[in-house]
Amino acid sequence: MAATSSSPLPSTVTVCNLNNQMKAVMTLIRKADISREDFVFYADRIVRFVVEEGLARLPYKPSTIKTPTQSDYEGLEFHAPICGVSIVRAGESMEKAMQQCCRHVRIGKILIQRNEETAEPKLYYSKLPKDIADRHVLLLDPMLATGGSAMKAIEVLLDAGVKQGSIIFLNIISCPEGLEALTSRFPEVAVVTAEVDSHLNEKKYIIPGIGDFGDRYFGTE
């Protein structure tokens, strides 16, 4: 069963309140013997849930529109344009949910891999919207283990002019070690996660975890 750290999480971290349905979905995708087809189907559902939660935490402003009855309706609209940025490869599994929730949303990509000699994350490729500095960014990666890749991706966004407070990092499963590392270094970056697991093992795998999300989603186990 997933467990949270005994110490309180920073106010910038939101752990989704999973209803019984979503808890059952999370249980299914954690199963070692689930088929790839079922894994993808149910993973897409929980990703959509997290994306919706992330969108709810963006700033909004009042918007008055006309309904077909020529009546005014006082509603809301995004305060600023948004975009998604996926950390390749596993983060690409979250792009579909982002596009389902926000039609025509722009999606950037960042490729980060570990340097085998230094064990440090290294940027290999990034392609971001030219006006990303004026946007709120939903950073997409389903797992937060050590936090190395996410922190490197945030560096890339900051170098592109994005403000820390305009970044929301969305992921499915995190752990106390990764959350501590990320929030200590970037205290204004918001995090939305479906569950916080117990810990990292000696191999830096999240426990109880889910295995390699990208391999399971894209069928490259």
Structure commentary:
By secondary structure, the chain is α/β, with parallel strands linked by helices. Helices cover 30% and strands 30% of the residues. The chain is built from six helices and twelve strands. It has helices at 20-30, 36-56, 95-101, 148-159, 176-185, 213-218; strands spanning 13-15, 60-66, 72-78, 82-88, 106-114, 121-127, 136-140, 143-144, 167-174, 190-196, 199-200, 206-207. Strands 1, 4, 5, 6, 7, 8, 9 and 10 form an eight-stranded mixed sheet that branches. The protein has a two-stranded antiparallel sheet with strand order 2-3. The protein has a two-stranded antiparallel ribbon with strand order 11-12. Mean pLDDT is 94; it is low at 1-5.
Could you say which overall geometry the principal axes of the C-alpha atoms support?
globular
Number of helices: 6
Give the structural class: alpha/beta
Give the low-confidence spans.
1-5
Proportion of helical residues = 25-40%
Largest sheet: 8 strands, mixed
Number of strands: 12
The residue-averaged pLDDT reads: 94
Strand content: 25-35%
Order of helices and strands: EHHEEEHEEEEHEHEEEH
Our Rg estimate from Cα atoms comes to 18 Å
Q: N- to C-terminal separation?
A: 24 Å
